[in-house]
Amino acid sequence: MESIDLLVLRTAHDWLTSGHRTLLATVVRTWGSSPRPVGSMMALRGDGRVVGSVSGGCIEDDLIHRYTTAYEGPGLPDGLPRLVRYGIDADEAHRFGLPCGGTLEIVLEFAPCADSLGQLLQHLDNGRLVRRSLELASGQVALHTTLVPEQFAFDGQRMLNTLGPGYRMLLIGAGALAEYLATMARFNGFKVSVCDPRPEYMEAWSLDGVEKLVGMPDDIVRAFAPDVRTCIIALSHDPKLDDLALLEALHSPAFYIGAIGSRRNSQSRRERLIEHFGETQASLKRLHGPIGIYIGSKTPAEIAVSVMAEVLAQKNAVVLPKELSVVQAKQAREQLMQVV
């Protein structure tokens, strides 16, 4: 399952190359409560077909009415990009289904260049980060590959949007927990791969749509070439498999690195990595373990929920309260039980 950004761009490119008039809309500013963050995109075809979203649905309906032939409208116009605003007052916010006080601005590109979108998609498919800039006054688009993700920016005249390859998740260990976690990751737009040198585990894997990689996990991690949109999670419970894979991961730019295990096992792992492999407390700060947020999970499905929540928080640069960490929450619970 592709990320929504890639899906929007690929669909817009397909529509354009098939001869359809296509509008590309991007949220560039929000105030108050807004249903979609800046950078959110949608593509609108001249006949009213839509992929992606810029709101909860009502703004999409308004754009369809204004700019397509779906309701006997005039169809998509020609011309330069246009900036539009929704939700300026309470009445309009209510009309367009925005939360109270919600306001957003959207840039509409009425004639995006199919060749430029094709070049952008080629870069993304090859694993590159790309900064796409749009000048509203001229409609000119420029693409620049980059190594560092940048925040979305809009100054009223130029829009800068850094787009990257889809997020990837590499799972070490092909057990039941891995299948649940892979399912959730795919629904969140991650491309998922699983590695396990144990044939009995790989042969029992039943989830379609996941790439199965054969080999020792440390070799697989190295060949996987983790980037800033990669997360690596060790789930095998076998130090011979997990530890070496984690060592490779820790020396990569992966945004999330974690390993399953109890508090005692996680502490033992840290001690092994320091004593035998030269790691330090500082170098192990990136290693999550025990993984997940504390929700009292017991079953593989519930544990997968807690792990996926932590991965998404890291992806979205959200700092979770210490009370949600497994270690802190269990320590607090134990202290409470002692008092009782």
TrEMBL record:
This is XdhC family protein. It comes from the Bacteria. Coiled coil: none annotated. It holds the Pfam family XdhC_CoxI. InterPro entries: MoCofactor_Util/Proc, NAD(P)-bd_dom_sf, XdhC_CoxI, XdhC_Rossmann_dom.
